[in-house]
């Protein structure tokens, strides 16, 4: 199946750059990788969020068809990994849109935001209020941690994430915040409960459901099993600030000498991707004008995947979190909360490569893409998280010609979540978002 030319054209219209700040602080990446061992295992997370975690509503608007409640609470991630969230994102905000009259039971769907879906108006207009009319279903709209107004104005251009690490912090925060809201809704007597989202929102909803200890319906729209392909082979890869990432990777040895050793995902998908691109030129490369050098950019990861598997002694799908002493929750939380100091973040953290030639070495772009695949798969691959309790309650909606969410060379959700259903729409990412909202509902 080819890729949508509309997806490619739309991406070219946008001037937004991703990851303009680079990889993020090495000590933050280390803390995130340690916390991933906890958040990726549902059993370890059972006691992380108390049943009576405080949630507040501070404003209510009455409309002809519904009541709209504004609410907030402190993100549990601030307690578990102090200082990892920007101060502006410590307070999680949501809107709860409730019908004036229930048709049957009191069903609520939590909607997580897609890329660029700031505030609540888009989800409220296109999804929540129509769902009240069509199904008598309430909606709870959770704001993304990095989409708070003040933070956008100060640090962001449109919907860009400043650092690669921000995406991982966002995922961890949304998993825990969704748990807070699901428990709050359950305690208020709402039922049944479900989750959904479009694009990045669908992906984040999928992550959240892996952590929920009960059967729950999930409808992720226009998302897939990992973010690694999104930022390395999809059209969004052209928006990544590779020059800054390559520069930081070249001059700071901590990335290739320490952080790589913390990755526990064995790289099976990246190995498959390297094999595929070695044999074929994907149509998207032609549409985007990718050079021959870029087509070879994942060659190193074929080797890296094998080395990681041998070095860690891990089997793909062998369970999240790995083995060893790090499996103990108290030990892991201690490591995470130490802000990386227990992870030998010593002088090596600040040591620079003095040879300027390394910044322009021919393999630098390939190495940076390889590193991106590794850290993305570590923190975003669904195989690194628990399988949802009841996969038969999952309906995945995908676009056949999606150029934003490449499916070639990565494990499918059916392989990771046996029993889930996948439905395909004609067209690409943009056309599906513009014209298939009724299908998503």
From TrEMBL:
Give any Pfam family that matches.
Answer: ABHD18
Report the InterPro entries cross-referenced here. AB_hydrolase_fold (IPR029058), ABHD18 (IPR019149)
UniProt-listed Gene3D superfamilies:
alpha/beta hydrolase
What organism does the UniProt record list as the source?
Answer: Seriola dumerili
Please give the PANTHER family that the UniProt record associates with this protein. PROTEIN ABHD18 (PTHR13617:SF14)
Stated name of the protein? Abhydrolase domain containing 18
What the entry lists under SUPFAM superfamilies is as follows:
alpha/beta-Hydrolases
